[in-house]
Amino acid sequence: MTVVMEVSVVPLGTGSASVSHYVAQCVQVLEDAGIPYQLTAMGTILEGELEELLSLARRMHAVPFSAGAVRVVTTIKIDERRDKELTIAGKIRAVEEKLGR
């Protein structure tokens, strides 16, 4: 069953306030995996099977360490429904419909 998951990977101890370089490397993990995702200003939303997404989140979490970060804080939110299909687009569409768009 498909789940929607938001993941935010925050490297600390990098010597710079900018983290976009690390974020880009984390997003590359998703590009290489070929799964549906949506990059946002505060995190990345993924769509797929739970076990696969958790595995990808673990790989994303490791990226900043391999690039020199000394601490990484990763936050994960999982939305799983068992009564109907769940997609990123469907969640957005449901809110937009209620807004009359």
From TrEMBL:
This is Thiamine-binding protein domain-containing protein. Pfam families: Thiamine_BP. InterPro entries: MTH1187/YkoF-like, Thiamine_BP, UPF0045_domain. Residues 5-96 form the Thiamine-binding protein domain. It comes from the Bacteria. GO terms for cellular component: cytosol. Belongs to the UPF0045 family.
